Amino acid sequence: MNKVLVTGGLGFIGSHTVVELQNEGFEVVVIDNLSNSSIEVLEGIHRITGTKPHYENIDLRDKSAVQYFFKKHNDITGIIHFAASKAVGESVENPLLYYENNINSLVYILQELIHLTQSNFIFSSSCTVYGQAEKMPITEDATVQPANSPYGNTKQIGEEIITDVAKVSNINSILLRYFNPIGAHSSAEIGELPLGIPQNLVPFITQTAFGLRKELSVYGNDYPTPDGTCIRDYIHVVDLAKAHVIALQRLLKKQNLENVETFNLGTGRGSSVIEVISAFEKVSGQKLPYKIVGRREGDVIAAYANTDKANTVLGWKAKSSLEEALSSAWNWEQKIRS
Ligand code: WQD
């Protein structure tokens, strides 16, 4: 049985990926320092799959802890690296937290992998690396623009580090550039954990609908888009999780054509903020209170994926609609508040 390490495996995308890995028969080991997740997520995974992954609370900024972990688990055949700080706004206020956490943890893991005869490494990247791309939908060869936040910069630097290391080692890697992950597992046993005031649109919508927030603030409706609000590619987190399993299997079967491959993971459909609100009102049967306020610093006008490469080369395609993803997010919100 293939043994896979998932760092950040109790996080939003990480936990959904652990479920899909277990569904495919992988033995999963999770590292998570619980800085942005809760140990309860482990129980949620257990309730869904019937298997509790082996879990270790390790802070990947602790180099000796990382070294000890890889000595102990020297039979790991693949790593999916989610563990990172990911709040754009927080990264602007506290850049060193982001550079230390997101870069050092990546370097310490790679330093263990370069000694292995062969290792398979999936890196959690983001469409943020494109900034405001000139052409929609965005392809993988679109220019990587100067990052507009330290968070985005850590993703760009991470990709560059992996590319350089892969040239001089036996590391095979796939960089997955996510668009906007939303939703929750159909069981509502795991989902996006609401720690503090949500920065992202969909958890703010579901908390508003539940009555935890007075109203949603829509950050600007004067953009050059059909309804004036920003456009994004909202992808169901389970579709995204499945893509990680497929990417890992590609490396395990040595089907990769280069030692670093890059894929955009989106639906290929762009939706404006107003369209998301309308879709949510449809699936929830509730009117959503919102007001238009000023633009948010750093927001791009539009970002949605050209998914041809993931569809043809990876053999993966997102299946869920925006409505299905929003419905799962709403079910999750109601479940955790019950
Ligand atoms: C989506 C749209 C906002 C909140 C970020 C990161 C990206 C990835 C996903 C980690 C924008 C609008 C939002 C609100 C609003 N994270 N909005 N009111 O900024 O596209 O992407 O999260 O990998 O890297 O950059 O997602 O959900 O914050 O915003 O009007 O209360 O919703 O202006 O147009 P974003 P988001």
Walk me through what this model shows.
- There is one protein chain.
- This protein is α/β, with parallel strands linked by helices.
- It has a domain of 211 residues: Rossmann fold (3-Layer(aba) Sandwich), CATH 3.40.50.
- Helices cover 40% and strands 18% of the residues.
- The chain contains eleven helices and 14 strands.
- The strands form four sheets. A seven-stranded parallel beta sheet has the order 3-2-1-4-5-6-11, sandwiched between helices. Strands 12-9-14 form a three-stranded mixed beta sheet.
- Strand 2, helix 2 and strand 3 form a beta-alpha-beta unit.
- The longest helix is centred in the first third of the chain and has 19 residues.
- The radius of gyration is 19 Å and the shape is globular.
- The mean pLDDT is 96.
- Bound molecules: UDP-4-deoxy-4-formamido-beta-L-arabinopyranose (WQD).
- The site of UDP-4-deoxy-4-formamido-beta-L-arabinopyranose has 19 residues, from helix 7 and strand 8.
- The site of UDP-4-deoxy-4-formamido-beta-L-arabinopyranose (WQD) has 19 residues, from helix 7 and strand 8.
